Amino acid sequence: MKELRWAAQELRYANLGDARRNKRLVKIVEDLAAQPNESIPTACGNWAATKATYNLWKSPRIKPDDIRLSHQISTVERSQEHSVVLAIQDTTDLNFTHHPSKKGMGPISSKPMVTGLKVHSVLAVSTLGVPLGVLHQQVWARNPQEVGKRHTRRQRQTADKESQCWLSASVATELALPEDIEVVTIADREADIYDLFAMTRQRRSHLLIRGTHNRRVDHQAKYLHASMSKRQLRDCHHYCTS
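== Transposase Tn5-like N-terminal domain-containing protein ==
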């Protein structure tokens, strides 16, 4: 049997309701991956392929989750080869300010004229640092009416704030991975949220969060920063970057 191309292998679980759509999705992924810095028309190579790409994206029969699902299933399969998986969470912005024809965008900064989408992802990585794929992804547009209400965040419940994305992603990670895999959720200081620490987790699920708040802890030093300064260094890793 002829070996499947990498995109066909990765998206073999895709079900867009029609075999032709599944085949087109594979072709789009191959084209864009081959030239990630190019425009859609350049990456597609000709007008027919470009039009087919845009038609797939704007089709009301296809939802973003339909496209992501196949990759997520493949990610879980790769994760099953590991006893421990690092689930790295982070949020990024897609800036569409210079594409005024785009609909459904929202503010992505304190300036209302800067618009786009927010994307929160969970990247599964092995303990050796090998990326396994995206386990979970949430995309949303901010409500323009909410701009300027940052000062009220302490009066609102976590479930009513964007901070909920960290908790939701943690739950989604546990649900996605088999129970025999130990999972370590890793996140930057934005995830230093009390509700994330307090929420019920499976015994195999752990958190590694960069602290930003000097929280009270169960230690003779009483507070996080002081307690960490009194702990013995367990290990040290050096990385060379260029």
